[in-house]
Amino acid sequence: MYIDSHCHLDFDVFDDQRDALMLRCAEHDVSGFLVPATTYSSWSKLALLVNKYPQWRAAYGLHPYFLAGATMDQIELLGDQCEAQGVVAVGEIGLDCWPNAVDMTLQLAYFSRQLSVASALQLPVVLHARKSYDLVMKCLKEAKFKHGGVVHAFNGSAEQAKRFIDFGFVLGIGGTITYPRAQKAHRVLAALNDLDFVLETDSPDMPLNGYQGRLNTPLSIPLIAQSVATIRSENVERIAAQTCDNLLRVFPKWNEGVL
Ligand SMILES: [Zn+2]
User: Fold this and answer.
1) Best label site of 6, 86, 102, 234, fewest CB within 10 Å?
2) Which neighbouring-strand residues pair with 125?
3) Is 179 exposed, middle or buried (0-12, 13-18, 19+ CB in 10 A)?
4) 257 domain residue, yes or no
């Protein structure tokens, strides 16, 4: 069995193929999906879909790259939203230092408020950290955040990996490691302990090597697992089992209230 620890299956692009995709995923043993919210306006649709698909879990939050329309009032509502069915985390939250990202002062304010919500609810977080690992770590320390989570699409150094792992996080490993040119990521992944990473696709984004320009789906997870197995010289069944265990450890509410 495989779990996709980060996929945006609520996005409209999946509307006309979601049911068929879920069937195909089941045929390929991809049987669990963590779907993190992006904007406030996405929360209600995600809640409906999590009720419809028992193999989905949700994280609610305000994504740092899409804060343009956000208001602090929405964070007041985040706690209530996290009482909804299937919630395992707050996310995706974090800091995005891409050149055209939202003003950093605003991002920092939203990030720290959402970390407070996660702390109050004793929930882990799904972290989005683009070119911002050290700043995100500084914020986690300042917030004295204790509930861990996943660093989504990790592509930092071995030192940055160690800091997050020591702070209770696992690293999200996705399609970038299928590219032969990702040598640094391969070296970091090869040196990780078995306990310290999970698999993700970031669907519909981040296509695998050889699939550029195509819609990415959780069906890529077995291919990512195969790449991980090759890079680490382990067998793929072990990677599948260990990464599922890791995910369930980091998101302890995963199996609560399952039908
Ligand atoms: Zn995402």
Assistant:
1) 234
2) 90, 149
3) middle
4) no
Cα dihedral sign, 179-65-213-59: positive
Q: Is 252 exposed, middle or buried (0-12, 13-18, 19+ CB in 10 A)?
A: middle
Total domain count, the chain:
1
Cα of 118 vs centre of ligand 1, distance in Å, is: 18
Query: pLDDT band at 258, cuts 50/70/90?
Result: low
CA of 176 to the centre of ligand 1 (A): 14
Q: Is 195 domain-assigned?
A: yes
Average pLDDT, the chain: 96
Amino acid at 128: H
Confidence of residue 257 (pLDDT cuts 50, 70, 90): low
Q: Tell me, what CATH number does 41's domain have?
A: 3.20.20.140
User: 118-168, pLDDT tens digit by residue?
Assistant: 999 999 999 999 999 999 999 999 999 999 999 999 999 999 999 999 999
User: Looking at the domain assignment, is residue 180 inside a domain?
Assistant: yes
| Domain membership of residue 238 as a residue range | 2-250
The bridge status of strand 149-151 relative to strand 30-36 is unpaired
pLDDT for 259 beyond 50: no
Q: Indicate whether 77 belongs to any domain.
A: yes
Q: Is 62 within 8 Å of 39 (Cβ atoms)?
A: yes
Residues forming beta bridges with residue 130, ordered by sequence position: 96
Q: Ligand 1 centre from 92 Cα, in Å? A: 7
